[in-house]
């Protein structure tokens, strides 16, 4: 069996999307599948080889497809820039895939799959959110050989559109356990190495916003006036403008000295920052995307870090987390989050038991396990 994984994404990029894609390609290869990754040939400020950037063995081909890329001029062209790039990538990819009918196509991108729905190519659609206008997707879902949904709620929504549930597999995201296990340095030494404060650190590690949506960092900052000065919050992974925005909020609340803001970091550094925390938070607000369709990489990375997790109580997160491996609070409830942080700080035993259970549970959620489950499903 040969799979062509086609994705309209810069490779490499600072986005979790790209990392997830390349890890899946590596794991498909590990499962004995011939795999090629097709990506657009776009302007990219990151010049490093993708395999080096992500610390992945170069065991499969990455083929870059020519596109018209006006996205660097998005400030002039607006959303039209993205539309032009997406459309030219879909048409270019579709034309090349017509010559590869013997291969299975795997993708997260609706544009290319909509074109493929008119061809004889066998394709698998991995879906990460439910669209606002699902009628455009109905054809893709019906024509797809198999569908991979990252949450049970996503599967249910697709079934409600009249799609056979038997061709939909729920496969949450995953983590590279070996990469986390390789960092043996203890928490206090990591704080020193990374130049972090010695106090009790509550961390958020990952992109600060998704599709322009707030991810709960504002709520975390609003909690600080309810906590003692011996507790600091560390936010890792933001863009410059986002950091400036949240610093201004912290300044207005007079809690800026209790905040540490750090920009985007490499994956190896992300692991160190996560393991340097005393507790880690998933502060997602109660919005449709986060509540039902999100399976964030940070969730599994937090579990693998061995640090106690404090999480918004949302159905999608509850598909993986439970009362034995995480401490929950009502979304957007600052007082509830403050109570959870104080509980973890005051009880080392509670934090220990939560983190040990999370470490045990996350062993199920490796990239190789995910790839094997998907391959077993699509080969049925």
TrEMBL record:
Domain named Glycosyl transferase family: residues: 187-348
InterPro entries: Glyco_trans_1
UniProt GO MF annotations: glycosyltransferase activity
SUPFAM superfamilies: UDP-Glycosyltransferase/glycogen phosphorylase (SSF53756)
Signal sequence bounds: none
Keywords, sorted A to Z: Transferase
UniProt entry tagged with the keyword Transferase: yes
Short name of any one Pfam family annotated for the protein: Glycos_transf_1
Protein name per UniProt: Glycosyl transferase group 1
